[in-house]
C-alpha cells in the first residue's frame, strides 16, 4: 500500500458517509439500542475517540462494538481477532463488505470508526467527528447513570474551535509530516505541529483540561494523538523535535488522562505499533516493529490534581470495561 506521493503534500480523504443516527430518526436511522454495531480498531486514533466516548458515556450495551485487527491490506480492515476471522454478529470477514452493502459502487476509504446497521449489514456512517458528537447529542437517553457532559451547550463554541485547530495541526498534522512527499512539505507540517503543541502546552499550564474544568470532547481528541506520540509518531512519522515524555506539561496532561477510567483502559500499544509499522510499508519496508518504548512512565504520578478541576463534573467515573472489551495483558503498562 502506498501512503506517500513523491513531491506532494499528504491530503486526507474526508469524503465520509454523513448519514446520522438521531433520536428522531430524521435521516432514516433512529437511535435504537442494539440495532447498530460500532466497528473500530484499537490501532486507529480516529476510532479510539469513539471507543473512549462510548466508555465514558456508558453506551456499551446500547451500541455494541466490533474490534477489527490492527493490520489491514489495500482492501479493508479484517475481523481476524474473532473466531474463524468473522465478526460474530455481522458475519463478515472484512469491513469492506459492510461498505459495499451500503453502496455496491463505493470507491472511498474503508475507514474506522464505522457504524453498521445490523439488520441490513450496511454502514450508516463513518463520519468520525460526527459519530462522537452524536453520542453526546443523540444517544443521551441510553447513557449510564453519572455520565459526564462531554459537549456541554455553554462550551460548544470553544470546544469546536479547539477541535478545529487540534485536528488541523496535531491530529492530522502528524500524518502530514509522516506521509509528506518532499522535504519542504515535511518541514512545513513539522513546524506547524510543534508550534501548535507549544501553544497547547502553554494553555494546559494554567488549566487541567482544554476547555472548562471538566473532561470534554476536546480532551478525547487530543489524547488519542498524544498517547501514540512516542510509540509511533516520534520515530515512524519523524515528529522528533522531542518526545512527549520530554515535554513536561503535555506529558503530565497525557498521563492524567491515561490514568482516568475510560481513557488508558482502552489503549492497546501492541495494536498501535503493529498497525503503523506493518501497514505503512512505503515508509517502513522491513515491517520490523520496535520493541520500545518503555511504557511504565504512563502510570507515574502526574500532579495535575493541583490545578483543580473535576474530571467527570457532577458525574462519576465509568466502571471497568465489560467482559470481552478488556485490553489484553501485556498490551499496556
Automatic annotation (TrEMBL):
Residues 300-333 are annotated as: Disordered. Residues 152-279 form the GST C-terminal domain. InterPro entries: Glutathione-S-Trfase_C-like (IPR010987), Glutathione-S-Trfase_C_sf (IPR036282), Glutathione_S-Trfase (IPR040079), GST_Omega-like_C (IPR047047), GST_Omega/GSH (IPR016639), Thioredoxin-like_sf (IPR036249). PROSITE patterns: GST_CTER (PS50405). Pfam families: GST_C_2. SUPFAM superfamilies: GST C-terminal domain-like (SSF47616), Thioredoxin-like (SSF52833). Transmembrane segments: none annotated. This is Glutathione S-transferase C-terminal domain-containing protein. It comes from Streptomyces zhihengii.
